[in-house]
């Protein structure tokens, strides 16, 4: 897909701030620092519209981006970062629950997993949580540029089996460095 326009709409800390328009949304999910914001930037060909960082915990709010006046990407804060206080963890939980359980505009989620590692317990929990809300999930196996070609299939199989991936859900090898997987990710998203 050709992206002509991409802009931030709002950084929302609670649902009163979500955009009111009834246009479809695709949300991101995944561990801190896994590459959620980088995924958005690569998909829309903007260097740093979604702010990224080499330190975990960069994204702290639900950030709504409007793409070609047609749909929203919603960037979310990651989970699984050890240095987060109990209080902050609870706040994260409330923010996610409020969004994922009630947002009618939400059509699908892109769950971003690091292709180099076996999905963590948190990843499995997140996947099950999204399935509980009957949301279609695309699993984006990112940082593909960081493994050898010969390791790809083994890692992808490990991800699918650990998550117990539903046949309906697509697993997409991806790299925000090289752009590999971008076409397939767009194809899937447009289906939603
Ligand atoms: P939080 O907002 O903290 O939850 O993190 P995030 O998931 O949004 O991660 P972010 O996109 O900020 O990326 C984290 C780091 O990983 C940055 O240093 C990125 O440059 C790097 N990164 C992300 N995707 C890729 C990729 O596909 N390949 C490589 N080599 N590096 C990547
Ligand atoms: Mg981020």
TrEMBL record:
Gene3D superfamilies (UniProt xref): P-loop containing nucleotide triphosphate hydrolases
InterPro entries recorded: G_ENGB_dom, GTP-bd, GTP-bd_ribosome_bio_YsxC, P-loop_NTPase, Small_GTP-bd
Domain EngB-type G: 22-192
Cofactor: Mg(2+)
Domain of life: Bacteria
Keyword Metal-binding attributed: yes
Keywords: Cell cycle, Cell division, GTP-binding, Magnesium, Metal-binding, Nucleotide-binding, Septation
UniProt keyword Cell cycle present: yes
Function: Necessary for normal cell division and for the maintenance of normal septation.
Family: Belongs to the TRAFAC class TrmE-Era-EngA-EngB-Septin-like GTPase superfamily. EngB GTPase family.
Name of the molecule in the record: Probable GTP-binding protein EngB
UniProt organism field: Halobacillus seohaensis
Gene that encodes it: yihA
